[in-house]
Amino acid sequence: TFILSLQFTMDTGMDIESLVCELYPPESQERVFKDIRYALEKYPYLVPEQSETVLSHHGNIEKALSLCGPVCVNHASSTYFIPIDLFIPSVYPTVPPMCYVRPAKGTVLVKSHKFMDTEGLCTSGIVQNWHPSSTFVQFIDSLVTIFGVEPPVQETPVHEISTHSYGSGDIYNSTERNESPGTSLSEPNISRTEPQIIFDLDSIEAPPSYSHNSQYSKSAQLEQKLKEKYSEFSVQANSSIDNLLRDGENLNKHSTRLDSYANALQRDIQGQNQSLRVFSQKIKGLHEWIDFETKGQTTRTVDDMLQCSERDAQLFDTVAEDAAIEDCLFALRQELHRNNIDFESFAKQIRYLGRKQFFSRALANKIQQEQLRQ
Questions:
Q1: Is residue 258 part of a domain?
Q2: How many CA atoms does the CB half-sphere of 46 hold within 13 Å?
Q3: Using alpha carbons only, what angle is made at residue 1 by residues 86 and 139, rounded to the nearest 5 degrees?
Q4: Which residue segment(s) compose the domain that 324 sits in?
Q5: 44: CATH
Q6: Does the keyword Transport apply (predicted)?
Q7: What are the tens digits of pLDDT across the range 330-363?
């Protein structure tokens, strides 16, 4: 997912991805890649290198990656390049990086610098209040701001020029500065001249330090344009890859959701099919029973269809007798109203049929109570 390793291989011939995997724990490898990418986009003259031995914050010797090269600093209306070595410890970002200023030929470190010791080790507010969310790009930004106010290097003193300077025409011409001879910085207290920041061509493989009046060679201009184009391409490609990764994650989420819906539908279909099979079996059994009953009605009598016990048959007879007596009583009342029989005959038959109906009903009630107790 990192195009940064491709850029490292093209520019330095080093397999940075393998080195990061070797030198840094898995939980911080992606963070190291990300911060190095941002650093190279903002400071294109920095070059990643492997440091054989680096003095760690715990006083131990360890291997680590470093970013070496010049950073652009604006001081006194002029642009200069300050060579630095930024070491990335193996426990980064738990602890801050270590940055050293490497003075070029013709320059020396400024003594009694507020943010640098005598060996060139730099510090700033962000290092003193370091948090794992901080980055070494922020550290470099703070150093650029500090060096713009208080330069870390100055011209080699006159008595040392014969052994440390380039000569009259190398790198930087102090007569081209747009400043008055009497101006000076409050810190550091330099009595002779303004601090001059010079990039060493021999010590660091990067474009040389130029003032704002210098001219780049055609090859340097071409190299700068190529780096700018590649930086733009890297930013666009990383943005496109991030968008594709987000789209892929969304598609995976939707795919998982669709799979769950499909599984639920499949379970519903299986349940419906099972219900249909049961319903079909019930219908088949019902048709078989209807066919059986239809055929049986042509050959069976009423007694065969009723098929009841002796006690049930007795109850059936008493109920039938009660119904017949009720019909007779109704018929007698009709005949009495029509004057077809006299009242004496009507009363005689009513007494006989009423007594018979009473016994039939009593017997039916007794049979029903016995059946309930059983």
A1: no
A2: 24
A3: 20
A4: 308-373
A5: 3.10.110.10
A6: yes
A7: 999 898 888 888 888 889 988 999 999 899 899 9
